[in-house]
Design brief:
Order of helices and strands: HEHEHEHEHEHEEHEHEHEHEEHEEEEEEH
Strand content: 15-25%
CATH architecture of the largest domain: Alpha-Beta Barrel
Radius of gyration: 23 Å
Bound molecules: ligand LLP
Helix content: 25-40%
Low-confidence stretches: none
CATH class of the largest domain: Alpha Beta
CATH superfamily of the largest domain: Alanine racemase
Number of strands: 18
Largest sheet: 9 strands, mixed
CATH topology of the largest domain: TIM Barrel
Shape: globular
Mean pLDDT: 95
Length: 420
């Protein structure tokens, strides 16, 4: 596939670096590269001078990542009190945070109001009441459901007509929410939508943004409301394998901006905001695994079993996601192979691969493009410790930024009643 998006921008470890890191920190290991992260953040900042650029921290809320993104001038999109607390612990000022969530609790709303988050995005009528009760004066955006189907994996589609997110535009609920919010004195400043993830071109995000722009014009006409902010969410995809060919960030942003600005009338010139997650961090990270067993089943491709699995990368099991797997220092002739994890179920990680015949116990594999939605979605299934994260600093030094679970932390939540 060749197009403007055909450049491979993924970070990968050199072989000697991979051996050194595995030796020092053990495996499985998440590795992030600081220079790569900063360069992605700078590319995004330069490509989007039209308003707030937020990092969607659900993609990776390791404190070091949050600090890097905030220091590059991005605001931080947090989807829960936990993510907000992570940002605060990373030293991000509350006013630089944007609070999301489709079922915020009173505790979350009042905590966010008390610490002074910069903006919050309101999802539903019940939440409008919570912000009123909190007597909050912070700027609020209404999350709207634009009825756009992004044609990506159904599990990461959020803008289509039957979505659970936001106020539907089509049946008038969005206008009703705006009217109520204005009447109740809430500080509504604009509108938000997020249509889906791993989008390779801006088509769906444009459609969502255009719906928001039309809605903003209708709100001006019907209620005299002047939108100051239109936030079109995140979604730009990354190169998991060679068959994913996302537009480069500047081109994606250029096309998105052109379509949005064309739709807005002269009477409205809101700030245009975006909040990418995956595109900022996925390609900056790799996961290192060590091979254990290798076996040929009675039927089908050879199994190469690694020391991780769906607890450190649930994405293949959840979404059928594919990744590029590179053996370290083994180059023999390839044989059809699949990589599975060590969990007590199928736990197929990567399939349809051709890996060197002489790959065996003790060898290392690096899996590219695992900086987003791996660490943040990791679990302790089968009581496996979640991996550590190492940040390769700009100086080349490797700093541990998230420790591997140890047995103490693994059992810290347990309470055994004395009379049990
Ligand atoms: N803003 C909102 C309101 C979102 O819900 C999301 C993602 C983003 C921004 C960032 O989207 P991104 O740029 O990362 O595509 N666990 C799934 C991804 C779920 C994304 C949900 N929302 C995965 O591993 O693919």
């Amino acid at each position: 596939m060749t197009s403007v998006g055909a450049t491979d921008t993924r970070f990968a470890l050199a072989e000697n670096q991979a051996w050194e890191l595995a030796e020092e920190f053990g495996t499985p290991l998440y590795v992030l590269d600081e220079s790569h992260l900063r360069s992605r953040a700078r590319t995004w900042k330069a490509a989007w001078p039209h308003g707030d650029l937020s990092f969607a921290s659900k993609a990776n809320s390791t404190l070091a990542v949050l600090r890097i993104m905030a220091s590059e001038g991005l605001s931080i999109d947090v989807a829960s009190e936990g993510e907000l607390r992570a940002a605060l612990r990373a030293g991000v000022p509350a006013h630089q945070c944007r609070l999301h969530g489709n079922n915020k609790t009173w505790e979350e709303v009042s905590f966010a109001a008390a610490v002074g988050v910069g903006k919050a995005i309101v999802d539903n009528f019940q939440e409008l009441e919570l912000w009123q009760e909190a007597n909050a004066s912070l700027p609020l955006l209404l999350r709207l459901a634009p009825g756009v189907d992004p044609k990506t994996n159904a599990k990461i589609s959020t803008g289509q007509a039957d979505t659970k997110f936001g106020f539907p535009i089509a049946d008038g609920q969005a206008m009703e929410a705006l009217r109520l919010a204005i009447e109740s004195g809430l500080n509504i400043v604009g509108f938000h939508c997020h249509v889906g993830s791993q989008l390779l071109d801006p088509g769906a995000q444009v459609q969502g943004g255009v719906q928001l722009a039309w809605f903003a014009r209708a709100a001006l006409n019907e209620l005299g409301f002047v939108a100051e902010v239109i936030n079109v969410g995140g979604g730009l995809g990354v190169r998991y394998t060679e068959s994913d060919d996302p537009l480069p960030i500047p081109e994606y942003c250029k096309r998105l901006y052109a379509a949005l600005s064309e739709t807005l009338s002269d009477s409205l010139s809101p700030e245009l905001a975006q909040e990418p997650g995956r595109s900022l961090v996925a390609e900056s990270g790799v996961t290192l695994y060590r091979v254990g067993a290798v076996k040929k089943p009675a039927l089908g491709d050879r199994y190469v079993v690694v020391d991780g699995g769906l607890s450190d990368n649930p994405r293949p099991a959840l979404y059928g996601s594919r990744y590029e797997v590179r053996p370290i220092g083994v180059t023999g002739p390839g044989v059809p192979s699949r990589v599975s994890g060590k969990h007590c179920e199928t736990d197929l990680l990567f399939t349809g691969l051709t890996l060197p015949e002489d790959l065996g116990p003790g060898h290392l594999l690096q899996v590219l493009c695992t900086g987003a939605y791996n660490s943040s979605m990791a679990s302790q299934y089968n009581r496996y410790p979640r991996p550590a994260t190492v940040l390769i600093r700009e100086s080349g030094r490797a700093d541990l930024v998230q420790a591997r679970d140890d047995w103490e932390s693994m059992f810290a939540r347990e309470r055994l009643p004395e009379d049990l």
